[in-house]
From TrEMBL, chain A:
UniProt keyword Cytoplasm present: no
Phylogenetic classification of the source organism: Eukaryota, Metazoa, Chordata, Craniata, Vertebrata
Chain intervals with Acidic residues compositional bias: 153-162
Superkingdom: Eukaryota
Keyword rRNA processing: no
Protein's recorded name: Zinc finger protein 207
Cell compartment(s), UniProt: Nucleus
MF GO annotations: microtubule binding; zinc ion binding
CDD domains for this protein: SUF4-like (cd20908)
UniProt GO cellular component terms: kinetochore; nucleus; spindle matrix
Name of the gene encoding the protein in the UniProt record: ZNF207
Keywords from the named record: Metal-binding, Nucleus, Zinc, Zinc-finger
UniProtKB/TrEMBL annotation, chain B:
Cell division in keyword set: yes
Name of this protein: Mitotic checkpoint protein BUB3
Keyword Zinc in annotation: no
Matching PANTHER family: MRNA EXPORT FACTOR AND BUB3 (PTHR10971)
A UniProt-annotated Pfam family: WD40
UniProt main location, coarse: nucleus
Amino acid sequence: MLLSDVRREVWFWTWTKYWCSESSGLLSVLSISLGKKKNSSLLVSNISLTIFNRYCNRDFDDEKILIQHQKAKHFKCHICHKKLYTGPGLAIHCMQVHKETIDAVPNAIPGRTDIELEIYGMEGIPEKDMEERRRLLEQKTQAESQKKKQQDDSDEYEDDESAASTSFQPQQVQPQQGYIPPMAQPGLPPVPGAPGMPPGIPPLMAGVPPMMPGMPPVMPGMPPGLHQQRKYMQSFCGGNMMMPMGGMMPPGPGIPPLMPGMPPGMPPPVGPRPGMPPMTQAQPATAPGILNRPPAPAASAPTPQPPVTKPLFPSAGQAAAAVQGPVGTDFKPLNSTAATTTEPPKPTFPAYTQSTTSTTSTTNSTAAKPATSITSKPATLTTTSATSKLIHPDEDISLEERRAQLPKYQRNLPRPGQASLGNPPVGPIGGMMPPQPGIPPQQQGMRPPMPPHGQYGAHHQGMPGYLPGAMPPYGQGPPMVPPYQSGPPRPPMGMRPPVMSQGGRY
Amino acid sequence: MDIRGRSPPAPRSAAGLLQFPACTAPPRHFELTNGRAAPSGGRGCAHCACVERTAVRRCEAVRTIGRLPSSSVKNSSPWCGLERGKKPCTMKTMTGSNEFKLNQTPDDGISSVKFSPNTSQFLLVSSWDTTVRLYDVPANSMRLKYQHSGAVLDCAFYDPTHAWSGGLDQQLKMHDLNTDQENLVGGHDAPIRCVEYCPEVNVMVTGSWDQTVKLWDPRTPCNAGTFSQPEKVYTLSVSGDRLIVGTAGRRVLVWDLRNMGYVQQRRESSLKYQTRCIRAFPNKQGYVLSSIEGRVAVEYLDPSPEIQKKKYAFKCHRLKENNIEQIYPVNAISFHNVHNTFATGGSDGFVNIWDPFNKKRLCQFHRYPTSIASLAFSNDGTTLAIASSYMYEMDDIEHPEDGIYIRQVTDAETKPKST
């Protein structure tokens, strides 16, 4: 029968997978069973590569989801609910912002609560923890192979029955409880909940078979699988139960549609796990809750893609603004934070500080714009946008040049040939400088005047005393500027117009 | 506090209370070390509430006086004036614990600060008030001052006894600090913007707005060559026997000081805005370039593609106030010679210390009254001189007083984290 075959295969597959992953739920089970014939060797080879959470030993399909789970459960500040990225980051945040100390990772199993290890997703997990996990998985696979035999027997047994009969349950309960020790994870809360399981099983069993083609573990006849399934069904896998219930999938094709819903459902059910006993009664109630949750994680799932690796640094080339996204303060890429959070970019210490969000795009645009403006001749800066403001004068000259043009720095320089200018005199003298090509004193940073400037500079150096001759436009200058000149200041005054070109350039 | 840091016997205030100097123990930056939360107040220094465990040993006042006096002010430590039990060790540490302001600072803005090459005792400061001053840092006193005819834009030590400086008056002066003798070495055709020394080649380098870089033999002293640049020189830095010049128009040129016949590398700055400052890594692998748009780029000198792939840039010195992001120029960069980490100072008044290898910010100091014009690490990396001086970004407005702050920096603030 198709149903039983599928059930059997999926059951076997999921069951083995279930054993292999310490705390996997139906989700990961089904994910592997999806579209594949069972392949225990393949499964075994996958064991060491599964993505798991080092703090609570849960398994995940995707590192992204793992990271979301970590952020939400382990790296979340209990005071302000801010989600950090690492354990040390959380500790620093609590210390700095709330003046509170944290010495353990929240929601972590005992033995894995060290807050000083910087773990992000699967990175940073100490080697000994990886070893421990591999050992556990190997134990599981061995235990699973034993169980397989048992399961085969019981499976045969089961096939003869059209539906999971409750008569199976009591028999299963005992062996299930016997299986608890090998399966139990240190600190798994479900273990104490086992006694509470049996009462929950019958209602589940009854409801499951008709709609759970993908839930063979639910079938009686899988004592350990059932037990764990129970746990997880009632815990985050309660979500699994819920969703298929909502879906009413046909046996075969039912499995694939189940899968997409699963991953987003993974993180939220972590919460229910501690609340397992209530789950048994609250299954229907939790269904809408779980169904609501997937959209939220799904929405945020696409965003944190860059920080999966160590902090990224866009190469600062031309593509800086466009391609890899800007990096925020503290070297953090801004793309990821743009969508997720909008905390103000306080320059606080944590290495993954959130930074500005909406200004990201605007600063990108402003960064892109000056590429053209700088190369063009009138070098003014396109500085401001609606949300960002460059604290710098508009002309593209250095701050020192601009400051040097202030009158107070001109007065001190007695030597001719000083490149010092007064701005006020520049104006009126500028009016006298029309013959000078393209060197209006107000315009600064103009490139074309350079050669003339050079000439004037040379003139300056060459003939400090020969000012009138050096400045043909000012041949008429002196008579035209009597108001500006007294005897002593005259040479400096005379010097100014050509020097103004220098200043104009600056 | 005398040179050795010992405090004199405590004076008595008018009210008859013993007045103790501030606890000299640097506040413990627990959040900067390994994220471990600070221990409870019981383990901290009983006298000044700073939670550094060793503060009990280092708190000089305890050693000299020996007992904690009663204080009429409840809950405040007479040593530090802090609330007892209050942790002073926040990211923005307070001035006074490991930082002090120099006396007799220049009357106008500060353009450059440089430590002596072999000691952290002497600091050379050039200023817009046309003076160059030498300070004895531990004694917090000015040892020497000499004048230029115009604002001085940069200064440098040739050796511990000779200072070179240049500025708007376009003259390059060498000053013997022992004999207080001045020597006009030469000049440029436009204000001199940068003065640096290259120990490997034993040459002084100056860059000017006349678009030239000139080399000077410090022994004679005399001009050893004039080399024209494509644009006005805004900044330059010496890396081993190479010279990195940052000019207007966002150009960067790398010269080999032993062979100035040609430009070794011509680059364009990877930042889209005007180059503000360039400093070379002490390990000579590359340089750090900052722009006026709150961005810093870390670049490598080796032109091979696999090394060039490692270059990156990041934003910094930006503040967000009511949804407007204020972007400040990054005016100053200084490297820690030992750890190869660097500090940046911007016009926002903040100083950040960065770890370029792990790409993390190590530390940020408290906000200084006004823009940071210049930074200098001492040769051994224990002291950081911070010149806080308005840079006229917003024209001539009322601004806080300029000052030079000397700060003792710890490994926690400057050393890359191993994790």
